[in-house]
Specification:
Layout: H1 2-71, H2 78-91, E1 95-106, E2 111-123, H3 124-136, E3 141-150, E4 156-168, E5 187-190
Antiparallel strand pairs: 1-2, 1-5, 2-4, 3-4
Length: about 190
């Protein structure tokens, strides 16, 4: 009887072992596969969230660029901007001996960069006020270079400015190969008034 019990116990043990091999090992392998799949999915979700944040950032930058571009005046506003600069200097009783400007096409951005070189003479207070008001103008204008020299024995200074302004190219809506009619290449104005 004891031998029989040993056979029964051995058989039950073999059945348990067979059940473990046949049923539990594949289930365990499936759980391991599911865990690996879950980790992959979590990594993809993190990647998609990061891509979504990057896409939202790109969209907000593009929106900002479009809003900025809508504030860029057309190229025809070039002369009006230069007139505002000289009028501003005259209001402050500054002498403007010369203004030179040169437009340069930036076809990739559909813009025109206007390089302006300007010279202004007058007392320090008026020049300081002119610079302050120049920076407050709504024009797309920036100071690239500024040189201030004084006249010995006088209270007058000479301010040489190199400015840059950007305008929408008139050819942006036209087909390539067309020229922009009536666009000046360069203008120099000399004024002898003080």
């Amino acid at each position: 009887m004891r031998g029989r019990l040993l056979y029964i116990a051995g058989g039950v043990l073999l059945l348990n072992l067979a059940f473990f091999v046949v049923m539990l090992l594949p289930a365990r392998s499936a759980v391991s596969d599911h865990a690996a799949t879950l980790q992959d999915l979590q990594a993809r979700v993190r990647s998609l969230r990061r891509e979504q944040r990057e896409q939202e950032l790109v969209n907000s930058l593009l929106t900002g660029i479009e809003q900025f571009r809508t504030r860029i005046p057309p190229q025809g506003a070039t002369l009006a901007m230069i007139r505002r600069l000289t009028d501003q200097a005259r209001r402050l009783q500054l002498h403007v001996p010369s203004i030179r400007y040169q437009p340069t096409d930036l076809p990739e951005e559909a813009l025109v960069k206007l390089a302006v070189q300007m010279e202004v003479d007058g007392p320090y207070g008026a020049i300081r006020r002119f610079l302050y008001e120049l920076e407050g103008l709504q024009d797309p204008l920036m100071i690239e270079k500024l040189v201030l020299t004084n006249h010995r024995g006088t209270d007058r200074l000479t301010l040489r400015l190199q400015l840059a302004a950007f305008f929408l190219a008139e050819s942006a809506g036209q087909e390539k190969g067309q020229t922009i009619p009536g666009r000046p290449a360069q203008e120099t104005r000399n004024r002898a008034k003080r």
